[in-house]
């Protein structure tokens, strides 16, 4: 099976040195890519800036901004059977990037941010993707409500809900604890485990579900 | 000699997952700390979030925000002979940190930023530091003008000017090329070299100059 996986944060520059980003380390996405590769899938990994070594045996596309990740997904989504969007793409970016480093002059600085491209939301509607579509919901409150909303609005087959407010799991942790949200099914919580073990479990589940979807 | 060194970027949170930061990798500051330790100095390293292994044989204080770095410097500056502020401290931070992850609702988002604490500028005036004071100026334009301005305004003995607009040197590069700016002297450019080699040269120079200052 051909699987596209996105991973890591994106960086949205204010000027040549400063940027907006988030606490995603890319560990979960890289673990998913390794697990998918180990299971014999053909993997394309589209990665934001992370400090992890690039995994072997797959196509790795490195990007920095949400716009670049959007373009990379658009280019590589054709022909994929499954897409797993685990990257923590910035929702907002500065409207303009200053050409030179902004000097520390005024007491305050007002920054206007605009929405970035909605990559997961574009998969069905813009890119015409018909394969098995997996999103992640990283939330700090009302986790399952946000996850189910995402599932419906973006046409996902599965949303993996991740409470990033808890210490020891989620962003930049070695372990993770997630809940699977599927259309017309109760939320299914998985036990807390290392990201590598969780990735193997998720890839096994996704492999089965994606195969099942093809037979429908 | 006792040397305090700051290194790395700072992160200024918008909410539990998003933050403002900059491209500093901490490599230059960590190389300076290693070089100072190798020369037999007693080193205190105050580091922002970096993906480098913590160096051996010195006190390492890890911080995240500009305010935390300010407090850590305030706590550790007493009794130091030399202070090298190589960290790329955020100049501005969001006025308020949202308790929960900001949801993607409006088309635009306005962020009000306020100035952070001026750590280098506080060394003499607030912390009463009388030792040898070294600042860094990381600029993308009018480098020496900014560096000399910093030298005078902040009471530095030395400002190390670093053009971060050039590819291959400065932030997140393995190599660096800097110019030494001293009061009442012409700018003194050093050749481009690895950060480790440059750190040894800078520590040798600073050791001599700091000893010289003590005899005055």
TrEMBL record, chains A, B:
Every DNA/pantothenate metabolism flavoprotein C-terminal domain range: 2-208
InterPro entries xrefs: CoaB-like_sf, DNA/pantothenate-metab_flavo_C
Pfam families given in the database record: DFP
Gene3D superfamilies: CoaB-like
Stated name of the protein: DNA/pantothenate metabolism flavoprotein C-terminal domain-containing protein
Superkingdom assignment: Bacteria
